[in-house]
Amino acid sequence: MQGLDLRSLEIFRAVATEGGVSKAALKLNRVQSNISTRIKQLEQRLAKKLFRRGNRGLTLTPDGWLLLSYAERLLDLSREASEALSEDRPSGVFRIGAMESTAAAQLPEVLSRFHERHPDVQIELETDTAGGLLDRLMNYDVEIAFVAEPVSFAQVRTQPVFVEQLILVAPKFFPPLEDKREISGKTVVAFEAGCAYRRYLDEWMLEAGIVPGSIMSVSSYLAIFACVSAGSGIAAAPKSVLDMMNTKEQFQCYPLSGKYSRIKTLLAWRTDYASVKLNALRELLPAC
Predict the structure, then answer these.
(1) Which domain range does residue 119 map to?
(2) Which distant-in-sequence residues (6+ apart) come within 8 Å of 186 by Cβ?
(3) Which of 43, 60, 84 is the last residue of a domain?
(4) Does residue 31 sit in the same domain as residue 142?
């Protein structure tokens, strides 16, 4: 079977993401008949049916979904190679993944300076847990990611950029914690599994002999702080987020000790990725 040309993959991706030939033709500034012909030729070359045709337009078959995953990676690699070999200024879309805490407390100033220097770059910032971000990075859904240490992927390079201190947050009306083991039995309010800071809190409690009660999973720090303030339980959060939100007076705060007192945030990117955008961003990030 002959190799697939990037133009055919670009047309296929447009039809898949737009959900139909007419919308893809409009997006690519092509006539519909040309789009339809290229899709038919692609299906014939692969001897696979890529789309189901229904009343609501085109939907991908399982083979179509598989091809789309490869098409995304190949088109992204082509763009990345072009950028890496270009001497022009950084431009185009820059897909950045970050933990919510980093996106809220650490990145705004950095990204503002980046945008001021490189206005031709369109930043798309996505937030997720550290585990989710590494999955996105390896699946080529984002180009770089800001995650908590450690990162043990052989295919990923890292650079320490920020240092965070984890704070145990308890409701204001809780009695002062004379002994941290008094936390035993309390509900822990945290992000879903995959959150690095939740993992650190679990490890800290295990080392301290603390047996937590139930786990309440929420999706944002705003929800975490609201639940803790209402007395639902305890949580752990980076000090930078508490400082930014100016809510420390609403809680009792206890810095975690030992190795959890200083946790590095890493800039991570795949070993097969290089771009002038990455180089430009690294120039603006602190070293730690």
Answers:
(1) 92-163+264-284
(2) 212, 213, 233, 234
(3) 84
(4) no
What tens digit of pLDDT does each residue of 42-98 get? 888 888 899 988 777 788 899 989 998 888 888 877 877 776 666 567 888 899 999
Same-domain status, 228 and 248: yes
Cα separation, 20 vs 14, in Å, equals 8
- Total domains present in the chain: 3
Helix (H, G, I), strand (E, B) or coil at 287: coil
**CB-CB neighbours of 176 under 10 Å:** 8
Q: Which residues contact 185 (CB under 8 A, 6 or more apart)?
A: 211, 212, 213
Strands 188-190 and 215-217, how do they pair? parallel
Q: Enter the pTM of the model.
A: 0.72
pLDDT in tens, 2-44: 567 888 888 988 888 888 888 888 888 888 888 888 889 888 8
Domain end, chosen from 64, 84, 104, is at: 84
Q: How far apart are CA 272 and CA 102, in angstroms?
A: 24
Longest Cα–Cα distance in the chain: 75
